[in-house]
Every structure is written in C-alpha cells, then in structure tokens.
Give the backbone structure.
Amino acid sequence: MTTTTYTVNAAGLGPVDVTVDEHGEGQPFLLLHGGGGPDTTARFGERLAGAEQLRVLQPIHPGFGGTPRPEALHTVGGLAALYVALLDQLGLAGVTVAGNSIGGWIAAEMAILNSPRIRRVILIDPVGIQVPGHPPVDFFSLRMDQVFPLSFHDPAPFAIDPATLPPAAQQIGAANRAALITYSGGATMDGDPTLRGRLAAVEIPTLVLWGDSDRIVTPKYGRAWADAIPKARFEVLKDTGHMPQVETPDQVIEAIR
C-alpha cells in the first residue's frame, strides 16, 4: 500500500489536502468509505485490488481518520466535486466509483456531475435519498452497542466497545462522527430532499448492492435508489447487513465481477 496526500483544487473550495491509500495496478477504482471511517473499506480495498487486478484508490474524506477538514468543505456535494477534481488532477480515465453508506451518496453525486472520467458506479447500501415510509434509522440517537445489531446480519464478530479503545482512537471516532454530522447536513440521516429527483440525470451504468439484513436502511429503501436511476441494476446480497464489504466481501467482489 502507498499513501499520498494530494492538494486538490476544486471550484469554490480552494486547495484541499486529500489523503489517499492505494493498492494494486490496473484499471482505476475509486472506493469511498462510509460514516464509520476509512477502516470500513481498508481491508476490502486491498482484497479487491488483489482479486481483480485493479488500481484501488481509497481517499479519506477530510475530517475523518484524523485528517483536517477546511471550513469551506461541509457538504456531500462538495466532496463529490472534490473527488471529480482529484480524478482530473490524476488524469484517470475509465474509473469505476464505488461507495458504501454516505460514500455511496458521494458516488451518486459524482455520477450526477457526469464526469467523462467515470465509466460506472457501484452504490453499496447508500444513504441520502428520502423514501416515504422507509426512513433511515435515527443513527445519531443510538449508542454503538445499539448500532451494531442494525448494521450486520451477524454482529458478534464485528462488535467493538468504544470504551475499550485507546484515547487516540476514541478521539478519531468522535471526529468521524462530527464530520458525518457536518456532511450529512445535521444530526439526522434524513438525506437530501432533492437527491432522488436529481438521480434521473445519471447517465452512467450503475449497480446498486444491498444487504438483505440491513436495518439501517432497508432493501425497500434500496429498491427506491435503483428505481430512481435510469441505468441501474439492483442486487440483494444474502445474509448481509449495512456494510457488505466488511461482512461478506466475497459476495461484493463477485457482484462487481
């Protein structure tokens, strides 16, 4: 793995430092982590690069993982513009963009921007749209011991007691949560009321993957995502929760393949 910090200039944001972990060689694959931070995609990115001969780039959203966030960068749309500018700066072409949870929301916003550098999009249990009758769980009102049963088909192997973590890790976790609140627009996960309608403008082939046991955002919510995108295909993953790339990575790799 190599880690590089790029200074990226995106319109309206000025220069922003973006730290990117990179694995493998081949076709470029931009992998965007969710609100749990970069650890939620780190192992999967390495595994994917080895299995599929891809150049997997994993940016850390500014404000997560102990990185700084400039005040001008405070929306999902801003992150999308930042990452499109990163693709431009690196001169990448034929890029697959994939994201989980809020990372999927960022990937969708990138698709709406219709960058010619992006070839396809993979949304893995994304949040961000509003679906009457199927709201996301009120994540920010829950303790971590309440989040895990909702996030995994079998939470036992993944449960962590934050109180047992070293102080530095607890500080990063708190900063991740604060960044998630900022980017998502407040202390709820209600999403963007305009996003579902704007997805009709996506021209890029899109795969929407959903864990059948996701109780953060249910498969019916996921079906609404796929129905809103003209060229989307919807696939449900068996015995899987909100983070399939963590719980059942082989299923995700097979779906991508």
